[in-house]
Amino acid sequence: MNSSDIYCSKLRLSKQYSKLINSDKNWYKIGGNLVYDIGLDYHVKLLSMDPKRSDTCSAAASMELMKKLPLACVKVNVDGWRYNTLKNVGIDFFYDNTMDLQKDTININGLNNLSLGRAKNVKNIKPPFKKCCDDLCNHIPIEISQKLIESNKYIAEHKKNRSDSKIKLR
């Protein structure tokens, strides 16, 4: 499971798979990550999060646990709903607070309608966010960082389409 607005570390799948297969854990949480805002062309570190928070970047879960989810149509806060629903049936999570996945796993903000408040949090840096002094290409491949930077030209059109839309967003 992965949100559509995340660039994942190349180590993610193998590390999470290994931990879930070779332990009694059924949920894997990354303790923090980077957040890049396309419109601001700026990124910050999301510091280690409280392990009990329902939201997390690039979570993974065992198939046995996922089969316990009820069939439901959830449109908003899917990650939080999934976590909060499953914690009642027994999440036993591994909380990865090492830096190997955190330094190159990035939440992308700017072209979706899912994380509308994240830009404010990135712009006005305060905990759990911290300024990141590295260039984005120090965290992810340069061709990916260039595509993200170039996508800024679509922000104005996206905002206009969103404001003209008859669809009510949260």
Show the helix and strand layout.
Elements: E1 6-7, H1 12-21, E2 27-30, E3 33-37, E4 42-46, E5 60-61, H2 63-66, H3 78-87, E6 93-96, H4 99-102, E7 106-109, H5 118-123, E8 129-131, H6 142-150, H7 155-164
Parallel strand pairs: 2-6, 3-7
Antiparallel strand pairs: 1-7, 2-5, 3-4, 4-8
Write up this protein.
This protein has 170 residues and is of the alpha/beta class. It has one domain. Helices cover 31% and strands 17% of the residues. It contains seven helices and eight strands; from the N terminus they run βαββββααβαβαβαα. The strands form two sheets. Strands 1-7-3-4-8 form a five-stranded mixed beta sheet. A three-stranded mixed beta sheet has the order 5-2-6. Strand 3 and strand 4 form a beta hairpin. 26% of the residues are buried. The model has no long low-confidence stretch (mean pLDDT 82).
Quick description:
By secondary structure, the protein is α/β, with parallel strands linked by helices. Helices cover 31% and strands 17% of the residues.
The best one-word shape is: globular
N- to C-terminal separation? Answer: 23 Å
Helicity range: 25-40%
Give the strand content.
Answer: 15-25%
Mean pLDDT value: 82
The total domain count is: 1
Rg to the nearest angstrom? 17 Å
Helix count?
7
Counting DSSP E segments of at least 2 residues, the number of strands comes to 8
Which structural class best describes the helix and strand composition? Answer: alpha/beta
The main sheet comes to: 5 strands, mixed
- Helices and strands, in N-to-C order? EHEEEEHHEHEHEHH
